[in-house]
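Thread: "does anyone have the structure for this chain?"

Original post by V.I.:
We have the sequence but no experimental structure in hand. Need at least a predicted one for the grant figures.
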Amino acid sequence: RMGEKPLYYAHGGGALVFGSELKALRAHPEFQGSIDRGSLALFLRYGYVPAPYSIYSNVMKVLPGTMLVVDGDTHETVQRAYWAARDSAERGCRNPLRVGEQEAAERLHALLSDSVKRRMVADVPLGAFLSGGIDSSLVVALMQQNGARPVKTFTLGFREARYNEADYAARVARHLECEHTHLEVTPADALAVIPRLPALYDEPFADSSQIPTFLVSRLARRSVTVCLSGDGGDEVFGGYTRYLLARQMWHGIGWMPQTARHWIAELLRRTMSNDKILKVADLLEAGHRESLYLRMVSQWSDSLSTGLHNTVPPSLPLLRDGWPELPDFIHTMMFVDAVTYLPDDILVKIDRASMGVGLETRVPLLDYRLFEFAWRLPLRMKVRHHRGKWLLRKVLYKYVPPALVDRPKTGFGIPIHQWLRGPLRGWAEALLDPARLQREGFLNPDPVRRKWKEHLAGGRNWGFALWNVLMFQAWLEAERQQPCLATSAEREAVLSHARN
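Reply from O.Q.:
Generated one for you, tokens below.
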């Protein structure tokens, strides 16, 4: 229902082909892999290709909570929803729970425990990812409660203190008496993964935490076959700090005339060089609050893509009319993330990274019953005292003292901006060569080179924006090296086998 697993499909050669990986579709002898420039523009903006689109013009993705219905005579297809996150969100806000905080916490505790217990059913070795944050710590605590032996937990450590959560995870693991495995990752370990990314993700994908996610999956696979993950808590229980920042900013600027905000933004651009101030300048020019959030989560404008003869295909973030009417702007942002960023980025990242090493992942916080329950909670039970996941914390504190888990959110990232100025510089320079960009004809070289030079000079941090471009370029390079069926005899043999 939430998009935990992928399904691609395409029409070609009189057949409907489908599979969980684009590799499967590319194996069909009639497959035509024409890059969709509108999808590329969306990818450059967000760092992922949002469903129902794929990077190929003739390949689509089945949306979460949806089945693909095929007409046996005409072979026409239609996607039909059997469950919709929007219905759950709107229905939950119309019929909020009218219970006290203690009863709400008890109900949430019961749902969480049952969800974790269901996902522990396995006849193979079982473990969990553990960062030491709220979500993963809660999943592991409930696994310990429901299991008969210590849970095997896994985490990565980095030498860069800002990105290192290993000590937090180790403390939680000791408190819960887990069987904990920790691996310190060097830059060389992480850099060695980069050549594998195009094959792992099949289409361009640019969440740089894809690298540590693959590494921790590979670490876990040495000991277990199934791992539980804490993903989903931020989108369902309001955990991202950007929700509060966006609401506060719109409250501060929404009343101002557009011309006044434009003037202030231009003044900031002329007089300031700080990344955060310049981001604020961009946000000031948002015409409405939905546009402000869209700008907050975007890396590039559509002008980076060349050959866009038509408009960028409609995706939910771009369709203001597609945003549901919910009682609070934070609720609106949570919903948009739950149906876009969560299935198209977070769940893609963990599914492809784990399956790439033969590890199955399960996500108990995305049980649809939990999702529906969470949308019946009033916002104050999710976001309070300038922090999200308030009710989740109440449940976790039954198992882990607050001092072990209460800290600023760091995410599961790597110092990509530093690596691009250091060990990745040569690799990036080759992919961003202006003559190469011009020859390939997909990207406008001028804005790319401008950001690259500013980043190398150290005055600006364009790491995330450049990573989007680099991941497309790396994917494109791998795409052109794909093997194909060389002869008509080979093609006919495959088609004959399919027909038989």
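V.I.: this helps a lot. Residues 138 and 396 are 5 Å apart (CA to CA).
O.Q.: and The chain has a mean pLDDT of 90.
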